[in-house]
Predict the structure.
Amino acid sequence: MGLRRKIKNFLYTRKFSKKKYLTNINKKNILITGANSGIGLALTKRLLELDNKILAIYRENSENLTNIKDKNLSIIKYDLKKINKSENFEKKIKETSVDLILNCAGVFGPSFENQQIENLDFEKFQEVLTVNSISILKILQIILNNKSSKKNLEILVNISSDAGSINLNNEGNAYVYRTSKAALNSITKNMSIDLMVKFKTIVFAIDPGNVQSGMNPGGQLKADVCANLIIDLMSTNVHLLNGKFVNLLGEELPW
């Protein structure tokens, strides 16, 4: 790693290093998508430590979740590429209410080279759109049709990306990923209005930045640090975040 890269990494991680975390999230029923890896797994582990009950959604591989021995963890298989095949999820959700939703599921899709206009695979494009944005609407629809859940839903957080910001886009390319995250941002804003009016639910989107994950193994920020920062955001004046797109320090980003 070159000196310039090392300095950049140091400056990026330093701004989080002295952060004191507030952790006022406890004794909640929390639904986490994308829970078997990355940010979703880190949030699952940390929120269990804080005495919450977790409903963890995974797509295929549940190995990391099954290795967690905690009576407050329930794992649910639900392939978000196939959102209409939701019987298993609907059955599980009828057994409990949901206080918080952390939507961490996300895929990048084809490589950068295969996200140019000339070679877009529109079937894969639709799959990424479904996982990264449309699936949260299906999940929310199921939860709101569960009478006990819709009364209790306090916070919904969508893990987005600055790649979904139209204003910040000065590089082009990545049509599939950018479009899916821009759609998620639009859905987030829309839900923040509807759910606040109907249920006083706070909805906002977070750009987690350069976090280590299966999709980004070279990330500069550890997933557990990211999880603590997200929990801190939900613990600190969260009512001020409704309808916003923010980074991990709560600084607002342009849609």
Notes: The mean pLDDT is 91. Residues 175-199 form the longest helix (25 residues). The two ends are 33 Å apart (CA to CA). Residues 25-247 form a domain with the Rossmann fold fold (CATH 3.40.50.720).
